[in-house]
Amino acid sequence: MEKKNIWETYEEESLKELERFSQEYMEFLDEGKTERECIDTIVNRIEKAGYKEMDAPGRAGEPVKPGDKLYRVCMNKSIVMFHVGSMPITEGMNILGAHVDSPRLDVKQDPLYEDGGFAYLDTHYYGGVKKYQWVTLPLALHGVVVKKDGMTVEFQVGEKDDDPVFFISDLLIHLASEQMEKKASKVIEGEALDLIVGNRPLKIEAADEADTSEEKPEKKDPVKQGILKILKEDYDIEEEDFLSAELEVVPAGRAREAGFDRSMILAYGQDDRVCAFASLKAMLELSGVPERTACCILTDKEEIGSVGATGMRSRFFENAAAELLTALGEGSELALRRTLAASMMLSSDVSSAFDPSYAGSFDKKNVAYLGNGMVLNKFTGSRGKSGSNDANAEYLAYIRRIFGEESVHFQTAELGKVDLGGGGTIAYILALYGMQVIDSGVAVLNMHAPWEATSKADIYETKRGYAAFLAHNGMAERNKR
Q1: How far is residue 378's CA from residue 365's CA, in Å, rounded to a whole number?
Q2: Rounded Cα distance, 310 and 301, in Å
């Protein structure tokens, strides 16, 4: 089947809308470089659009009616949104599900140390990364430090023009002959990914030298002491406060247009914030009272297996759905099971884009190409489809029909050659409820690298595909069950 570059299909008005959408997307990426920042940004946007928090004071026991827009947040890292439809919810929901976590480096709980005249923060990488890609880059620190008294200090250093940045060193090429003989997985090892945060020692004044109190500055590790002094003065943070901190090391810098033609976006964290943003926009564009209840799940921890209280494996989504059903007068366990089984989902996650420089890693007939539209992956998993959700042919035909009616440009793909590897999404977790699920999203070049590339046209078409899916009543598919 012929692959078609969709840029040639756009009229002038569509191109203007695409560019407006792309600019808003880049702003979203800059505002949310961590899962916490993403959720904060999303809540601000949806509340302006009329969404109400399910747990808000005064909402308990309040009836829910068609057209209501509700949301619930889990630990500031995951969110579920509902736009209530006119059809009985037990006939199923139309669900979009993406994740807002991305590969990065996490600061350890006892991280600060000095060696060789440098102050370092010890890190632990998160998700699947090529460790050698993270050295010699300008890096930023984002996150929160929660003190013993419960006070939260929000932390973001390295993004403003006048902010300092941080970095991880690498061995100079003149001395790297032994290093260059190592396998790529060993060139930079995990324990070598320590962040350089300072080099200037704290000057001990004469008056301090004579001070015999327990609080006098220590001569030991003067560079580390200098960093602690800055943290205390600027953020009121003590060294022990790292014990209850969540600090993430991410590439410093804003999302940028890429290419002379500005057709692409180069930015950190597009896996999977690109699908999260497209899903969010599709939900916000849904107006009035839809026929089927629309739902959007934006979750955490996908990059490490969807584990924990904020990952898709938790009961967070199921509990929120149960509360919605109760508010709609369908508060039984059986009603919840029927609702989830009758639901349909687009598991909104990225796919690998064809890279001509590494053509041997792809099946050219079954790979996504930048600029060819939204991607449908019938299955993901690895090698013999291990860990995969394998969508039914009937459901794939249903999605094709919807996209055909709305002229959504899409392509189908697999993630690389069969024996080379593969990947996973949250699709198989939602499929456990018996609902129809297929992976769908945006092709990404440089996936899991500090800077990932996408096509503006693909992101725009993905948003259009999500919007078409949410607005459909599902009748044709449901009648065939």
Answers
A1: 14
A2: 7
* Domains of the chain, earliest start first: 6-102+268-478 (3.40.630.10), 104-251 (2.30.250.10)
- Two tokens, residue 138: 């300008």
Assign 82 to helix, strand or coil. Answer: strand
Reference 415, options 380, 439, 440; nearest CA is 380
Q: What is the pLDDT of residue 62?
A: 75
- Residue 322 dihedral angles phi and psi, to the nearest 5°: -65, -40
- With contact defined as beta carbons under 8 Å apart, do 433 and 343 qualify? yes
Distance CA 245, CA 236 (A): 13
**Could you give the count of Cα atoms lying within 13 Å of 347 in the half-sphere of its Cβ?**
25
Closest CA to 441 of 413, 422, 402: 413
Number of residues that make up the chain: 481
Residue 116, token pair as written in the block: 């060789």
Q: 58-111 pLDDT, tens per residue?
A: 556 678 999 999 999 999 999 999 999 999 999 999 999 999 999 999 999 999
Query: Which string of DSSP letters, residue by residue, matches 431-455?
Result: HTTT-EEEEEE-EEBTTTSSSEEEE
Q: Is the pLDDT of residue 422 over 90?
A: no
What pLDDT score does 60 carry? Answer: 60
Number of C-beta neighbours around residue 481 at 10 A: 9
Q: State the average pLDDT over residues 246-273.
A: 97
Count Cβ neighbours within 10 Å for each residue of 144-167 and write b for 16 or more, e otherwise.
bbeeeeeeeeebbbbbeeeeeebe
Burial of 321 (0-12, 13-18, 19+ CB in 10 A): buried
146 strand-pairing partners: 152
Could you tell me how far CA 296 lies from the centroid of its own chain? 14
Interatomic CA distance for residues 411 and 133, integer angstroms = 30
What Å distances lie between residue 442 and 11, 54, 411, 439, CA to CA? 22, 31, 10, 10
Q: What is the pLDDT of residues 426-455, one digit of tens each?
A: 889 999 999 999 999 999 999 999 999 999
> Which residues lie below 8 Å from residue 415, measured CB to CB, with a gap of 6+?
351, 352, 377, 380, 421, 422, 423
pLDDT digits (tens, 9 = 90+) for 325-337: 999 999 899 999 9
Mean pLDDT, rounded, for 389-396: 89
* Mean pLDDT (whole number) for 168-179: 95
Contacts of 310 (CB under 8 A, 6+ apart): 35, 74, 75, 77, 78, 299, 300, 301, 316
Task: State what percent of residues in the chain have pLDDT above 90.
Answer: 82
The one-letter amino acid code at 462 reads: T
